[in-house]
Design a protein that fits this description.
The protein has one domain (5-98). Helices cover 35% and strands 28% of the residues. It has 4 helices and 5 strands. Strands 1, 2, 3, 4 and 5 form a 5-stranded mixed sheet that branches.
């Protein structure tokens, strides 16, 4: 695909990287920037349970976020690996939104 990452920014707290979610901004070598929301599987299940208890989102029947990517963890190593995998698989431009 020819996309090469220059920098990755994320909003997760480095002291608690597995908090469950973070916005990820990828800057490519060509200067273009893209954003996606990374959520851990555990965080989504926790939110589903909260929605069920609070009778929100059809009592946990759904959860969505634009440009959402589900991941095992929200630490920088996982984020880098997932971003590179999305590029290698040709899915990066579908998962991320240009900003």
């Amino acid at each position: 695909m020819g996309l090469k990452v220059d920098r990755i920014y994320y909003s997760a707290n480095e002291e608690a990287p597995n908090e469950g979610f973070t916005d990820v901004v990828v800057v490519l070598e060509n200067g273009k920037q893209y954003i996606a929301a990374f959520f851990t599987y555990d965080h989504v299940m926790e939110r589903r349970h909260q929605h069920l208890l609070n009778r929100q989102k059809c009592e946990g029947a759904y959860f969505w976020r634009k440009n959402m990517v589900l991941v095992e963890g929200c630490n920088l190593d996982v984020i880098r690996e997932v971003v590179q995998c999305l590029i290698d698989e040709g899915e990066f431009l579908e998962a991320f939104e240009k900003i």
